[in-house]
Amino acid sequence: MTRVLVADDHQLLRNALRRALEDSGFTVISEAANGADALRLAQLLHPDVVVMDVTMPVLDGIEATRRIHADDASTRVLVLTMHDEDALRARAIQAGAVGFLTKDCALHDLVDAVRDAAAGEITLTPQIATSMMVQFGEPDALEAANGSWVSPLTPRELEILQAVADGSSTSEIACDLFISAKTVKNHLASIFAKLDSRDRLQAVLSGMRLGIVQLQ
Predict the structure, then answer these.
(1) CA–CA distance from 149 to each of 43, 140, 143, 210 (Å)?
(2) In whole numbers, what is the pLDDT of the chain averaged over residues?
């Protein structure tokens, strides 16, 4: 059973989110009305997924996301906000969020995003990826074009990183490549080390910046 923490400073929205999530089979373990409470409850309860508003009192959602991710990267944070801005999307992903939704989205879209996050999938749209690329630039792509850059990953690691970018889980990658899940995890650990990444999302973003993976 997927355990969800809902963080938003509007009681009516929290109620609506709770109903939609519980009707879809999730367990809403608690609610937070500000970022500080969201952080405290995440540290106490270790939810699988946090649905996080951005503009909240005491501590904003971006900083709360950053601290939650630093404390326990297995807790997946989905940002839900009124503001659809490139800079905000980039900040959310930098902080460790695995998805970004605006409050005008349909409830079923939110439910699907929570389900994907709980399954360990990367909820990274091309729009978010473009925002990140614009912010950080592509210096390594220029070196690659000049022939002076070589991928730090082995062919197998490249294959696995692309599968991650495509949204495949560890078990799906293992099945597709006819290797064990443990072997996939070992390859992922090597990829993270080589790309100086702490998780799948950062590895995919680094791979995109280097021009070695693409979003479909």
Answers:
(1) 42, 7, 5, 9
(2) 84
**Torsion angle, CA of 96/99/102/106, rounded to 10 degrees?**
-150
> pTM of the full predicted structure?
0.69
pLDDT in tens, 85-102: 777 877 887 788 888 888
Q: Domains of the chain, with CATH numbers?
A: 3-125 (3.40.50.2300), 137-210 (1.10.10.10)
Residue pLDDT, tens place only, 27-38: 999 999 999 999
Q: Give me the mean pLDDT over the 143-158 stretch.
A: 67
> 């699907």: which residue's tokens?
112
Q: What residues does 51 pair with on adjacent strands?
A: 6, 78
DSSP the chain: --EEEEE-S-HHHHHHHHHHHHHTT-EEEEEESSHHHHHHHHHHH--SEEEE-SS-SSS-HHHHHHHHHHH-TTSEEEEEES---HHHHHHHHHHT-SEEEETTS-HHHHHHHHHHHHTT-----HHHHHHHHHHH--HHHHHHHTT----SS-HHHHHHHHHHHTT--HHHHHHHHTS-HHHHHHHHHHHHHHTT-SSHHHHHHHHHHHTS----
